[in-house]
Design goal:
Distance between the termini: 15 Å
Bound molecules: magnesium ion
Structural class: alpha+beta
Strand order of the largest sheet: 4-1-7-5-6
Oligomer: single chain
Radius of gyration: 15 Å
Length: about 160
């Protein structure tokens, strides 16, 4: 098979006094993610999409959240590990398309910085990475600013030698 598609989803609770990190970018906000790792829900969705594309399990099987090794870990490191795994299976990323659903803060000012950082982490061009942000129309936990959700679709193609 030359092409594989994967999708990923994540949700993290928000609490006051925590850091809000999305795509490796620290975003100023009064609330941040409650998580075992740094809580970067965008990178977590990308990781699950990458693993899903090759049917390699999920983020929890590769990086268990009860393992002290991963406490407060920078999710960028986990993403790099997973990209190495994908490459070792002879696949590379064609493109990544993501959504961040957050009632607050307004993410528009940070999108280009997030795309740039993800391009650096993944070794892709910026035009291969899409990050879109929307609110939840004030509905449910996301709309009430209690959580942020993310989702991601990736396309992989076989590396030709
Ligand atoms: Mg997560």
């Amino acid at each position: 098979m030359d092409f594989r598609i994967g999708n990923g989803y994540d949700i993290h609770r928000l609490e006051e006094g925590r850091k809000l990190i999305l795509g490796g970018v620290l975003i100023p906000h009064e609330k941040g993610f409650v998580a075992h790792s740094d809580g970067d829900a965008l990178i977590h969705a990308i990781i699950d999409a990458l693993l899903g594309a090759l049917a390699l399990g999920d983020i929890g099987t590769h990086f268990p959240d009860n393992d002290e090794k991963y406490k407060n870990i920078d999710s960028s490191i986990l993403l790099k590990n997973v990209i190495n795994l994908i490459n070792n299976h002879n696949y590379e990323i064609v493109n990544i398309d993501t959504n961040i659903i957050a009632q607050k803060p307004k993410l528009a000012p940070y999108i280009s910085k997030i795309v740039e950082n993800l391009a650096l982490l993944t070794n892709l061009n910026k035009n291969q990475i899409s990050v879109k942000a929307k609110t939840n129309e004030k509905m449910d936990a996301v709309g009430e600013c209690k959580a942020i959700t993310t989702n991601c679709v990736v396309l992989l193609k076989k590396i030709k030698y």
